[in-house]
Each structure stands twice: as C-alpha cells, then as structure tokens.
Amino acid sequence: MLLSQKVFVGLAVWTVFSVLVSISAGLEVLLTLELIGLLIAVELTSGLLSRELRGRMEYFIYTGLLLFVVVVLRRVWLILS
C-alpha cells in the first residue's frame, strides 16, 4: 500500500472517529477535530509525501484554519453579546 493511501485511510478513520465524538457536541467540534487530524497527518508525513500531495493537504489545512477562525469569532461574538 502506498504512503498516500495509508494517509488517506488514516484520515478516513480519524473522520469517522471525529463524527462519532461530535454527534452530540456539534459541527464546531467536528471542524476542530478534523483540523487537528490534518495537522497531525501533515506533520507526521512532511518529509515522506510528494510536493504535490503535500500542497493539496495544505490547501485543506488553510481552509480548515479559515473555518476555525470563523468558529472562534462566532464563539467570541456569542460571549460578548
């Protein structure tokens, strides 16, 4: 099995785990857990993945960071109002 396939399977397992954990907690927890999983996967495989695949994963990380900022801003807005 190729390394990229192992990373994909690992992220799929993490996604299933994240969905099960966040069923009662909500979408914000799911987004945070998914971002954590992506960050860990990229750090663990940073020297092993091709530049193209690493670039694709970074795109998802940047999208996840943007969504995380939205979640944090929403929480701060709810606390302040």
What is this structure's SSE topology?
Blueprint: H1 3-21, H2 27-44, H3 51-80
Question: Would you kindly provide a written description of the structure presented here, covering whatever features stand out?
Answer:
The protein is mainly alpha-helical and 81 residues long. The chain has one domain. The protein has helices at residues 3-21, 27-44, 51-80. Helix 1 runs antiparallel to helix 2 (27-44).
What is the rounded Rg? 14 Å
Strand tally is 0
The succession of helices and strands, N to C, reads: HHH
**Separation of termini?**
52 Å
Search tags:
81 residues; mainly alpha; flat
Give the gist of this structure.
The protein is mostly helical and about 80 residues long. The protein is about 85% helix and about 0% strand.
